[in-house]
Amino acid sequence: MNEQQGSRPSGATWVPAWTIVVLVLAAVLREGTERGNQSWILAIGAGALGLLLTGLITAATDRGIALAHRLAAVVGCSYWMTLVAYSGWSLTRTVAVLVGAGALFILEAIFAPAVAVAQVVQQQTVTPVVHQEQTDEEAAWQALLRRLAKAPITVRGVRPWADAPQDGMQVHIDLPEGLTVKKLSDSTLADDVAGAVKLPQGCVVRILDADHQGAAILDVMLRDCLADERLISEPTTAASIYDEMDVATTPRGEPMTVCLREKGMIVGGTTGSGKTTLLHRIIMRLARCIDALIWVIDPNGGGVAGPWLTPFARGEVDTPTIDWVAEDEVEAAVMCAIAIAIAKDRKTNRFSMRRKRQANTTVLPVDKDMPAIVIITDEGGEIRQAIGLLAALVDQYIARIAQIGRAEGVRVIQSVLRGTSDLLEKSLRAVQGIRVCLRMDEEGEYDHVLGKNPGRVRLLHKGSAFIYRTDRDYRPVLGRTVNVDIASIERHAIATAHLRPKLDDRGKLIASRVTLADVLDGRDPNDAKFAPLLGIPVIDDVLAGVAYENRWKRKAAMLAQLRDEDLPEDDEPGPSRPAPTPTSIAKPGSALDRLARGAGVAADAKPTAQATQQEPAKPVIPSQQQPEPPAVQQPTAPDDVDAVAEALLSDAHMAVDAEPVRPRIDAPTASAELVPASAGQAPNTRQSILLVVHDEHPTMLTATQIRTAIFQRWGVDVSKQRVGELLGKLVEQGELVRDETRPNGPYYGLAD
């Protein structure tokens, strides 16, 4: 059978013919009546028959909307014929029938117009019976699919892969009515087929589109083709962010391509899954783009950015591959605030509007003169879990950039260590059209990162991943990323240095106008609680309007380490980030204040009259001199709360309720190593680590926990990279032990 396009004429076409029939029938009935017959009675019968035929014809031609006026016309014609047959002709009756015909013509043209219809035409040739052409293999596949899908699927052919016949095959099928490729993809058919034919571990079945929507292709992998490692082979010629780039390859070797100008990306993967390697691969492609700047937020001490910056640190190139690196939440907050300011400005400034008009588009065209900004976050969940206002702001800023920055060329590529809601919000995932999920520890994490169930295939190899492009794929596709080695990174950074663009002058101007209030998301920077921010280099540069211009001056220590210039072990800690300030409003020196501070919590007490009469703190601004030391408060009579606190601290109470004191175990090193520095001076980083680990013995700590403890005790923010280096040296020297068997490790503790 075949369908051809035809047409159905308007009902108005038949009005003149039916009018002539009515006139002729009336004349015949009138002549019979004049001869003495009762012919006029037949007009009534003709009217009844006309009503029946009209209803049937209207229903058959699907003209239900015209049924009302057609039945009225039949009744009117029947009455008119009966009147003429009984009483004879007159001018009035003739004019009446013609007017009625004209009105019927207009109604038919309106309510029963001509329409196009699909006509089914019988083909001259008869399709041969399917089962007579099927091979035994095709018949076996058809029986299997019909049993698993519970639908009359027809197998049209089974063909091996053209490029690797031994590695897989394609099963071409016709789908019955009501079954589509999307419905098959959303079902468990692919997993059921893989289990039914007993495919080896790592092999998958994909459901692909065929030539038309009534057919599909089952792509069956017979060998674990992803076991073959693929090395990076990226040219060093100029490219554009508008070009498609491959992030992985399918088992057949087909590239999985994406466009980073159109979509943001999420990369998820547990430790050792190949997540950082994939980020290197993405940076390697972006390094060729003459119209894209690379900014990196890396709380791991620059671990992702480091290899790309090594040639720049050594002076081998003048332009770094990565335009800006943020190693902590303070610099990350400044970076994100500047990115948001640039994105908002590009929406309305005249240069951007002119570009959009010239290109006749609402999406800003980017090029080397106004490059896109791609912000890459490595393990962005660490920032989300960090304690403090700035960390929370960075998390909010990243989501905001992903939502508002697409049209203006400010994109986000975020990586997460776990597929959980505390590290990745659904609202952020929803605006990221490219989702890559490498190996995870729990099955449910794949669904959270991808937003779709990828199936039950295990990822057996480092770099294996599910890739889901929301605008192309029905379900996540299994693939494997390429391996990127350090030597290739450094060679590529040198070869592509001349291709790197610079931030446009308008962007630099906007960056210089970003204030501390912008970094704090509108909060008053003169608030006393933000005073500890002053003195941090990046904050001082924000206040001076040179946060972007001085970005590499602030990285002098990082660049020195990349040049293999080791910092001394007993280096003094670098600039500290704002320490958490106590919020207790108990009277300084009171029992309540001592009790609260000893417990590490803020006391919930009403301020005393004297406290409320104190002069408020003056606003802190950069030009302000150092504030005078606060005056010593006069002792006041203890209130009820203070009396309770005094009782809790009494010798009698402590003797009864005090917990047994844990005996201190001397560290393996000399005792002098663990003696804190003089009052008011923080110990060096090495001593800080030993003190923290010693005080928590026998509990073992991770590097992050050690960093947090150092910050809480001394208000010093030591980079994760520096802590990791010193922990490694202390393990080599036998002072600490490392446990890598526990999850979320490694853990460090005192050596026995």
UniProtKB/TrEMBL annotation:
Which terms in the Gene Ontology molecular function aspect does this entry carry?
ATP binding; DNA binding
Per UniProt, ATP binds at: G269, T270, T271, G272, S273, G274, K275, T276
What protein is this chain from? FtsK domain-containing protein
The UniProt transmembrane annotation reads 12-29, 41-61, 67-88, 95-118
PROSITE patterns reported in the protein's UniProt record: FTSK
Q: Does the keyword Membrane apply?
A: yes
Region Disordered, annotated ranges: 565-638
Q: Which InterPro entries match?
A: FtsK_dom, P-loop_NTPase
Keyword Transmembrane appears in the UniProt entry: yes
Domain of life, per UniProt, equals Bacteria
Which organism was this protein described from?
Micromonospora costi
Q: Which UniProt keywords apply?
A: ATP-binding, Membrane, Nucleotide-binding, Transmembrane, Transmembrane helix
Residue stretches making up the FtsK domain: 253-447
